[in-house]
Amino acid sequence: MSAVTSGIHHVTAISGEPQRNVDFYVGLLGVRLVKRTVNFDDPGTYHLYYGDGAGSPGSIMTFFPWDGAPKGRIGAGQLTVTSFSFPASSLGYWTERLVESGIRFEKPEDRFGETVLRFPDPDGLRLELVAASDDRREGWSEGPLPPEHAVRGFHHVTLLSTDPESTTRLMTETLGFRQTGEAEGRTRFEAGDGGPGNTVDVANGSGFPRGTMGVGTVHHVAFRVPDEETQLELREKVAALGYNVTHVLDRNYFRSIYFREPGGVLFEIATDPPGFTADEDPERLGESLKLPPWLEPRREQLEEVLPPLSVPAVSR
Ligand code: ZN
User: Fold this and answer.
1) Structure confidence by residue, pLDDT tens digits, 95-115
2) How many CB atoms lie within 10 A of CB 182?
3) Distance of CA 137 from the midpoint of ligand 1 (Å)
4) Angle at CA of residue 231, ends 128 and 294, nearest 5°
5) Measured in angstroms, how far is the CA atom of residue 102 from the centroid of ligand 1?
6) Does residue 124 lie in a domain region?
7) Distance 9 CA to ligand 1 centre (A)
8) How remote is the CA of residue 219 from the centroid of ligand 1, in Å?
9) In 163-313, at which residue ranges do the beta strands (DSSP E only) sit?
C-alpha cells in the first residue's frame, strides 16, 4: 500500500495578543485549549493548540501569537480560509451566538448543500462555520457550550493556489486525495474516510495578489499520517518529485516534515502519535506551560518572558 495522508492534522496561524486569542477560541468558538507550549523555533513566544476534548487530528488549530508583529495579507499561495464544522441542527444556535457576541458575519452561503457562516477572528484570520449534514465526531463534551452544539473540528480548508493544476496533481497523485466536487471556482478533494476534517478545497489564485505572512494569516497546514514509517515513505515520494522537504522534526506531540507545494502553500506531514497526552493527563490538558525536554532547563527564564494567560471558565 502506498503511503498517503488520511486527512487534515492541524492548521497553524499567526495571531496577535495571546489572551485575546484564547478568549475568542475558547470563549466564543468553545474549542479546548489542549496545549500551552512555546514555539520550538522561537521559545520566547507561545505556541497555543486548540481542539476537541482530546486534541484529535482534524480538530487542531494552533497559533503562534506574535504580539505587536506586522499584519499579514491574505492572498494567493496561502491557506486563506479555515472552516469548522458543527451539526446542521445547531444552525440557529450558532447564528444567534454570533449575533449576541457582536461578531459581524457575512450573508450565509450555501456550499455543496451546506450552510456556511463567514467571519474573521479578532486578528482578521478568515474563518467559517459550516452546518455539517453528516459529521459523526464529537466535540469537547466538557466545554463551555452544550455538547450537542459544540464545534466538531475542521470541516475543510481552502487553498488559494497560484498553480491549481500542479497543486491538484500533487494532492491526487502523491498525497492520496480524490476529487469529490466542483462548484463556484473551487474544487473539493477528500482523503481517507472523507467528510469533515478530511476535506480540502482548492481555488484558483493565479492572477490574485500574493499573500504575505504576518498576524492574521495561516502559516501552514498539516496532513496526517498514522505513523513514522508512513511519514518516511511519503517523505521519499515527495523528495523524489524534487521538492525541498525537511528532515523529520520532533514536535513533541507529533513528528513533522515540511515542504512548499507548487501553489505556494507550506505543507506539513504530521504523525498522529504520540498526541497531546504525551506530557499531560487528559483531564488537565492545556492547564500549565509544557516544555519539551530540551527547553526544560530554560523554564524559569521563559516563564518570565511569556505573558500570563487565563482560560475562560468552562462552566456553562
Ligand atoms: Zn504544524
Assistant:
1) 999 999 999 999 999 999 999
2) 12
3) 22
4) 85
5) 31
6) yes
7) 8
8) 8
9) 178-183, 186-190, 199-204, 217-225, 249-250, 255-260, 266-271
Q: How far is the CA of 11 from the centre of ligand 1 (A)?
A: 7
CATH number of the structural domain spanning residue 285: 3.10.180.10
Distance 315 CA to ligand 1 centre (A): 30
**Centroid of ligand 1 to alpha carbon of 254 (angstroms):** 9
Strands 60-65 and 8-15: parallel
Q: What is the pLDDT of residues 205-225, one digit of tens each?
A: 999 999 999 999 999 999 999
* Average pLDDT score, the chain: 96
The CA 222 to ligand 1 mean position distance, Å, reads 6
Instruction: Say how many domains are in the chain.
Output: 1
Host domain of residue 91: 8-305
- In the reported structure, the alpha carbon of residue 185 is separated from the centroid of ligand 1 by a whole-number distance in angstroms of 27
Q: How far is the CA of 123 from the centre of ligand 1 (A)?
A: 19
User: How remote is the CA of residue 113 from the centroid of ligand 1, in Å?
Assistant: 31
Any domain includes 18: yes
- The three grid cell numbers given for residue 8, joined into one nine-digit string: 487534515
In percent, how much of the chain has pLDDT > 90? 96
- Angstrom CA distances, 157 to 23, 128, 221, 231, stand at 23, 9, 9, 22
Q: Is the pTM of this model over 0.90?
A: yes
Query: Rounded CA gap, 189 and 168, in Å?
Result: 9
Q: Which neighbouring-strand residues pair with 249?
A: 256
Q: How high is the pLDDT of residue 2? A: 83
* Angle, CA of 116, 174 and 263, to the nearest 5°: 55
